[in-house]
Amino acid sequence: MLKNSTLILFILLCTLSIPAWSQSKTALPETEGASKVVKAYPNPATSKIYFEIQRNNDKVYEIIVYNFLGKKVDHIKNLSGRTEVALDNYYSGLYIFQLREKNGTLVESGKFNVVK
Which of 43, 58, 65, 104 has a CA-to-CA distance to 77 between 20 and 30 Å? Predict the structure, then answer.
């Protein structure tokens, strides 16, 4: 019974929370060929994950990582170029990340999976 309740809660949180995170006051143009600002790889990850800024624009970003329950588990500041994040303190599961500008404006969100 507890596993079923947890699964239902997880599904509800994902369907309610993720669309709200993907909205931004300054939305990027929505064209079919729009490229992502950040790339997270490998996905799924086991021991480390890389966040790579795809656009060469001299901006400095930060990434906030949340677990599937919406709890903040990591905050990576001063992100530019390629950054490696060790997953030693991460449990197996699904994580959501938000790429934000230094002033806090949401640029992009995504997800990655940790498998141990």
Answer: 43
How far CA 9 is from CA of 5, 90, 94, in Å, comes to 6, 21, 14
Please report which helix (H) or strand (E) contains residue 20, including its range.
helix 2-21
pTM of the model: 0.69
Q: Which residues contact 9 (CB under 8 A, 6 or more apart)?
A: none
The two tokens of residue 71 are 């709890």
What span, in angstroms and rounded, lies between the C-alpha atoms of 114 and 87?
Answer: 8
Q: What is the pLDDT of residues 60-96, one digit of tens each?
A: 899 999 999 999 999 999 988 899 999 999 999 999 9
